[in-house]
Structures are given as C-alpha cells and as structure tokens.
C-alpha cells in the first residue's frame, strides 16, 4: 500500500507542477510572458501548425549540399510525425514530404491563410491515415508547453463593477436559490412550476421581470468567469488602433520588433479584432469603469486546450455526419449572470456558432461527399470574408481549414466557380519514392524480411510496383537526356528508372559528366513538377501489400536468398496478369540495372589500392603539367623529385583517362588540366581561399577518375583467373582449403568487403559473386 501511495503522490506532484505552468494568469502576467518570449506567445494557428511540423520533422537533409544547381529537394524524416506513436502509420515519400513542407512554410509566412487546403489523392493512398495522424500530433503538440497558446478569459468582479448582489435579487429568485441550496448536489428534485405557485400573484402570473427557463437562475459569486467561445488570442482585446503604439512601448528595437512590423506572418496582430462577445464586454465595462486599466484587470489568459473528441480547437466531420440541429449556441445561465452583473440584458449577447469552437484551430472534412459537400459550400463566405453570421452578429473565424478528396469527387466543387481561387490542392498520390515503398513493406511484414533478400532485390520489387504509377513518357527527361540510348545497358528507353532515382533524391553515378552538368535547377524543377500528375493510377498501396505478401510467400525459402530470378519468375509466370500494368520492357531494363549495380559493388570489393599513393601521384601530376618536357623539378606539394618526361605523363594519364586514349585526347586532357590549375585551382582556391591542393575541385575530380579506372582493372582476376572464380564457388566448403594462400586471402577480402560496404551476409556475398561469374556480367559490360 505504501508503494501505491508513493506512486499516487508522485503522480499528484507531477500533475500539479504541470498545472502550475498552465494555469490562468492575469493580463499583466500574460504581457510579461509576451515580452519574455514573443516568438512563442505571439502565434496564431498557422504559425503553431508550422512550428509543430518543424518540431517533428526538422530541417531536412540535403545529400548534395555543395551542388550549385540544388533546388532544395531534400530528405525530410517524417517518422516522428506520421509513424511513431500512431496506431496506423503513414509513410510520406520524399515528393509528398517536400510538397507538405513547402505548403507549411507558405502558411507561416501568412501568404495563404484565407484558403481551404484540400489533400487530393486516389483511393488507397492513405489520405485518411495521413490526416488522422496529423491532427493527433497537432493536438499533442498544442497541449505541450512548446506548442501552447493562450486564449482570453474574463473574470467580472461584481464589487468593482457595482452590479447586483445577492441582497438585490428579487424575492422569487432568493426563494429558488434557497431551495437549490437544500437540494442534493444543487439540483431540484421537484417540479419547478409546482413549488413556485405560491409566489404567483392573484392573476396567476409570475412576479414582474421573472421568466421561467429550463433551469433556474444561479446565484452571483463575487466574480464570474466568462470564457471567450472563439478562443481569442488575448492580445486582440487591445483596441486595434492602439496596438502599434502599445508594441512600440513594449518592445525594444530588436530583431523581433522588426519582424513584427515587417513580416507577413504577423499581419494578423494588427489586422484582426476581438470576437463580438469580448468586444462588447470590453466596451460595456469601459463605460461602467471609465478606465481601460480597470477593464484589463478583469482580462485573464489561460492555455488554449485542444481536444478533437470534445470538438475544442479541432473538429473533424465525416460525410455521414448530419448537420447540427442547433446552429446557434449559447449559455443561458452565463447570459443571466452577465445581464445581472452589468444590469443590461442587451449589451453583451453570449451567442456563437460551431465555428467559434475551432477558431484559431483546425476544421477538417473527411472526403468531399455527402453532408460534407454542404459544409464545404457553407465555408465559402467564411473563408473569403473570415466572418460568419450568427443571427445579426458577425463572428470572426480564423481557422485552418483542411479537407480530403478523391479525384472522382472533384465534380462536387467544379460548379462553384467563385470557390476555385480559395482552394489550395495538395496532391497525395500513391508512393513514388522506392525507399518509402520498401519502408511500408518492412512496417507491415517486419524488418526481418531484409534477411530473406539479396541486397537491392527488395528495392527492385518496389521499382516494379512504382513503374505502374508513373507515366511512360517524360518530356522533361527527354529534353534533358539527348541520347537515352547511351544508357541502354542499365536503364529503360523511357528513363523511368532514372526518374525513380531522382524522385528518391539520388543522382545516379552512371550518368555521364556531360549529362550531370546539364542537370540544371530548371530541369530538376520540371522533372519534380511531373510528379504532380503521376501516382493517381497503377497499383494502389493496398494492392502492392497484397502482391508483396504473395511474392514473399512464393519466394522465401530456408537457406536461400530471394534473388532477381525469383522476382522475374513471379511477374512473368506466377502473376502474368500484372504485366498489363508494368511498362513493356521494364523488367528487362531492371535486370540490366541490377547487373550493372552488383558489378560495381564487386569491383569496389575487389579494389585494393594504396589510396595514399593515388593521392601522391595526382598531386605530382598537377604540378608536372605546368612544366616543359625534360624539366626536372621538386613537387611543392609532395616534395618528390620529378623528371618530367612524356613517358611519365602518359603513365599517369593511363590511370586518369584509360590506356586506350589517343595522343590527341591525351594532349587535350593535359591542356585542360593545366588551364584549370592556373586559372582557378592555384589563383582562386589556393591563393585566395587558402585551400590545400587536396581540397580543390580539380584534385577531387582527378582522384575520382583514378579510383574509377583502377576499379575497372580490379576485375582482371574475375576475367582472367579461373582459379579465382573456382575459389569463390568453393568458399565456405572444405574444398576452399586447397587453394593457395594468396587466392584464399583475396577471396576472403572480397566477401568481407561486400558485407562491410554493401551489407551483404556471407551467404549473400558468395551468391552475388557467383551470379556475376556464372552470368559473365563483367565481360558483357566490358564489351558494351
């Protein structure tokens, strides 16, 4: 029992500390907190929504930070936002994540606040999961100290105002109050009409000014609390025409004050007004008290608590949810208290609508069909004018409006022409990023599935699925790659495999230097823009999960890894019906790309050169090209004594541009290197920027060339040594012990390098080496 009591005491202490941080504070204390942390306190829903996304997602990772043509198409890790802590994870691919972040950045800038944001995508793309997870994380964030905002709360002090006290209440009301005090829990277990008959006058009427209500009047306390039903930010109670002067006195001339006055995101601070209830309370109190300071003494601030289930701050409507019968909401008990304390039944009318409950919050529609079409139409004037009529009162509505829509439901809004400029569509297609597609399989079937595949085969399954979702022809790619045929050994004729790499944020290393240079920012934007019209057809997310389950059940076997042969067999023999959805020739091109990729991996594993010696040779070469043939010089970078002959330069160029280069190509290469060294490397990068020779762009380019060509030579054992091939086949068997020590060491090194560099298991490393050998992959690519 003592342990239980201790646990409850700890819980109580924790909750009390939390509540103290989020308790009601005076207006003066609120202003003090505003001065202390203006970025956190002075936010509307759009700014908090931005901060929530940024808190969960971060800044993103640019894999090519030094790329001058970058368009900031970066990797945003949305795991914390859409996956962690959710019942049904949503996996945002790179394209959608960038689309969402860019939209959120625009929201913070305040550029598009009078719009409804419709997330448009085909069935099975995960729209509902996306929105549910997004709203859940927003609710969690908004109820933390980091995401908290304040709302207005009035505490009307009867003594300060001079309103009616209990002694001034009509005898009839006193009688009711007395009966309520005697009743259990303050409720009246009797018929209200019967118990009040003795108070009626001889004519049978109630005393003057007494009206029967659903519940009897409530006694006046020393102070009554009047919450703002519209969740107004407390700063809005300041009269709009005096806010700028108030902030001039409040803030120093610092960075925040400059942003407050100049940036669009803070435009709402000077533009918006308090709700009609708060404004009428302010005016009525100012008339009675005669001093704004006394009025502000009755204004308090409390945390804006969000609850989707209670409809506070977040409201979500499904198509089948019927409209509310009572569109105008009020609080008769509170209205009677306000009337009594102000002695005026008409000055402050406590009326509001359902939209007030999500003011400065989120109002969401799940699918634009059924009753949600009516709700969307009703939002038209609210979004454009930011007001809603409640009887003869105008109610402010500054909410973030979100909706989901299937493509076939677009007809429901096409007839509303005036609404078109108020709709901001955000496309949620089927996943087009192969890394995200694989992440979905791992989430559904478990991360252990990787152990059943040879590296790259699982991703190739994802490529097949994604190929059904892309358009076959890309005008942007065809304009960029002038000669697609040059890549026929490892890419399809429509360059869909190239597009998949770009959509995943990867620039393939098999592109030529010429095409990499032509990959400008303008071309990148055109390619990424094509994704807006893709992913609305083909195999859906649900379809891909079913197909993968069937493939995995067919191909997974004990002691054998799933390879490309199994993948090809599945789509051509087990499920040939799927070939209608897969572009013609795509599977063959995917096989060629796989062959090329694993060959590069084997090259890398075979490559075993002294990289320090490579670096030294390149530095010597860069120094030597600046002198005439026959000169003898000491290299300023390495200290080596160089005899600069034609044979020496040719020996270095054999590594840099290949042994088969013609004399003309050698002379042109040598001249280009010398010119760039003199014009940029030495004079700009080294002398002006203070870089070492090994930090310059020219050195790095030559180093990459040298390593690439040396790796090509590393294939010689596979091409020329039959013993080396047999040793790989016998690796892991007793026959492997019969080979000489040098071959065994080389084979052991290849197997270990494949595991260390490319995450192959020992079985996988052996299988991929045997695959390259048995299919003569090296000779095929050397011949091409």
From TrEMBL:
Source organism (scientific name): Desulfatirhabdium butyrativorans
What UniProt keywords apply to this chain's record, in alphabetical order?
Kinase, Transferase
A Pfam family that this protein carries is: AAA_PrkA
> Which PANTHER family does the entry link to?
PROTEIN KINASE PRKA (PTHR30267), PROTEIN PRKA (PTHR30267:SF2)
Give the PrkA AAA domain ranges: 25-477
Q: Which InterPro entries match?
A: P-loop_NTPase, Prk_AAA, PrkA_C
- Superkingdom to which the source organism belongs: Bacteria
Protein name, UniProt field: Serine protein kinase PrkA
GO MF annotation list: protein kinase activity
């Amino acid at each position: 029992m003592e342990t239980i009591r201790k646990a409850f005491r700890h819980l109580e202490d924790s909750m009390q500390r939390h509540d103290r941080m989020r308790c009601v504070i005076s207006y003066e204390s609120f202003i003090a907190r505003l001065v202390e942390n203006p970025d956190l306190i002075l936010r509307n829903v759009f700014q908090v929504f931005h901060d929530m996304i940024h808190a969960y997602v971060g800044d993103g990772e640019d894999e090519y930070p030094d790329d001058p043509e970058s368009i900031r198409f970066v990797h945003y890790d949305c795991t914390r936002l859409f996956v962690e802590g959710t019942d049904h994870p949503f996996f945002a691919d790179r394209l959608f994540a960038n689309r969402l972040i860019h939209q959120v950045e625009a929201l913070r800038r305040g550029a598009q606040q009078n719009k409804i944001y419709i997330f448009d995508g085909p069935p099975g793309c995960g729209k509902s999961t996306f929105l549910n997870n997004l709203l859940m994380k927003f609710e969690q964030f908004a109820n933390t100290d980091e995401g908290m905002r304040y709302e207005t709360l009035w505490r009307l002090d009867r003594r300060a105002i001079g309103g009616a006290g209990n002694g001034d209440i009509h005898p009839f009301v006193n009688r009711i109050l007395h009966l309520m005090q005697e009743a259990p829990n303050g409720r009246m277990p009797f018929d209200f009409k019967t118990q009040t008959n003795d108070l009626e006058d001889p004519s049978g009427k109630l005393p003057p000014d007494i009206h029967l209500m659903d519940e009897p009047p409530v006694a006046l306390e020393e102070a009554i609390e009047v919450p703002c039903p519209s969740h107004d930010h407390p700063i809005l109670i300041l009269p709009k025409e005096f806010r700028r002067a108030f902030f001039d006195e409040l803030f120093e001339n610092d960075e925040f004050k400059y942003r407050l006055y100049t940036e669009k995101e803070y435009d709402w601070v000077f533009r918006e007004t308090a709700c009609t209830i708060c404004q009428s309370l302010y005016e009525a109190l100012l008339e009675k008290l005669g001093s704004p300071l006394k009025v502000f003494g009755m204004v308090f601030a409390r945390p804006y608590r969000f609850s989707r289930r209670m409809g506070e701050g977040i409201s979500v409507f499904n198509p089948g949810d019927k409209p509310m019968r009572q569109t105008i909401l009020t609080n008769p008990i509170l209205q009677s208290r306000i009337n009594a304390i102000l002695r005026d039944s008409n000055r402050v009318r406590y009326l509001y609508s359902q939209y007030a409950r999500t003011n400065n919050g989120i109002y969401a529609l799940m699918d634009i069909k059924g009753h949600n079409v009516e709700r969307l139409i009703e939002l038209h004037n609210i979004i454009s004018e930011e007001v809603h009529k409640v009887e003869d009162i105008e109610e402010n509505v500054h909410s973030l409006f979100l909706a989901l829509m299937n493509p076939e439901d677009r007809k429901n809004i096409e007839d509303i022409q005036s609404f078109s400029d108020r709709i901001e569509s955000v496309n949620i297609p089927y996943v087009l990023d192969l890394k995200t597609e694989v992440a979905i399989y791992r989430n559904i079937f478990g991360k252990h599935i990787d152990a059943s595949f040879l590296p790259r085969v699982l991703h190739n399954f994802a490529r097949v699925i994604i190929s059904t979702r892309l358009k076959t022809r890309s005008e942007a790619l065809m304009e960029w790659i002038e000669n697609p045929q040059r890549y026929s050994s490892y890419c399809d004729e429509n360059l869909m495999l190239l597009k998949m790499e770009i959509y995943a944020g990867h620039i393939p290393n098999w592109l030529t230097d010429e095409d990499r240079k032509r990959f400008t920012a303008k071309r990148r934007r055109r390619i990424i823009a094509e994704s807006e019209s893709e992913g609305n057809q083909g195999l859906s997310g649900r379809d891909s999960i079913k197909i993968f389950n069937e493939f995995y059940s067919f191909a997974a076997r004990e002691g054998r890894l799933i390879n490309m042969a199994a993948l090809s067999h599945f789509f051509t023999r087990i499920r040939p019906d799927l070939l209608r959805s897969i572009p013609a020739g795509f599977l063959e091109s995917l096989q060629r790309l796989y062959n090329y990729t694993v060959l590069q991996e084997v090259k890398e594993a075979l490559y075993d050169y002294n990289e320090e010696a490579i670096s030294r040779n390149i530095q010597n070469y860069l120094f030597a090209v600046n002198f005439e043939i026959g000169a003898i010089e000491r290299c300023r970078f390495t200290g080596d004594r160089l005899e600069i002959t034609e044979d020496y330069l040719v020996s270095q160029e054999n590594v840099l541009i290949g042994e088969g280069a013609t004399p003309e190509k050698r002379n042109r290469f040598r001249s280009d290197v010398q010119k760039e060294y003199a014009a940029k490397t030495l004079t700009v990068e080294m002398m002006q920027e203070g870089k070492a020779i090994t930090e310059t762009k020219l050195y790095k380019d030559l180093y990459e060339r040298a390593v690439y060509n040396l790796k090509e030579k590393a294939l010689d054992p596979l091409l020329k040594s039959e013993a080396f091939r047999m040793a790989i086949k016998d690796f892991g068997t007793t026959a492997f012990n019969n080979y000489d020590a040098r071959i065994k060491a080389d084979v052991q090194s290849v197997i270990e390098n494949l595991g260390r560099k490319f995450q192959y298991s020992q079985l996988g490393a052996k299988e991929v080496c045997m695959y390259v050998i048995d299919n003569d992959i090296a000779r095929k690519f050397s011949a091409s």
